[in-house]
Amino acid sequence: MPITDHKGIPGMESGNLCLAIPFCCMYVISILGNMLSMLLSDSQEIRFDACLTQIFFIHCFSILDSGVLWAMAFDCFMATYNRLQYESILTNPS
């Protein structure tokens, strides 16, 4: 039974944490920002521009997340389908 090792982006193993932290912060800020201000001020409504901003960021990050998941699925497919050629397909010949 073969064992796979998931390292993230080839050649950037040390930078994976540096990429994960900003994405996590963007998600937290876009989703929880207005909600926390509403809960702390006991307000039942938000301004229209704040609502549009929140909708924009939620949709942008969900599209970005879908793209990342698609890339991960494609990477998994390539690793499974072309086992012996996987490294030469994803790395630049230099």
TrEMBL record:
Coiled coil: none annotated. Its main location: membrane. Keywords: Membrane, Olfaction, Sensory transduction, Transducer, Transmembrane, Transmembrane helix. It is a multi-pass membrane protein. This is G-protein coupled receptors family 1 profile domain-containing protein. GO terms for cellular component: plasma membrane. The chain crosses the membrane at residues 20-40, 52-73. GO terms for molecular function: olfactory receptor activity. InterPro entries: Olfact_rcpt, OR51/52/56-like. GO terms for biological process: G protein-coupled receptor signaling pathway. It is found in: Membrane. The lineage of its organism: Eukaryota, Metazoa, Chordata, Craniata, Vertebrata.
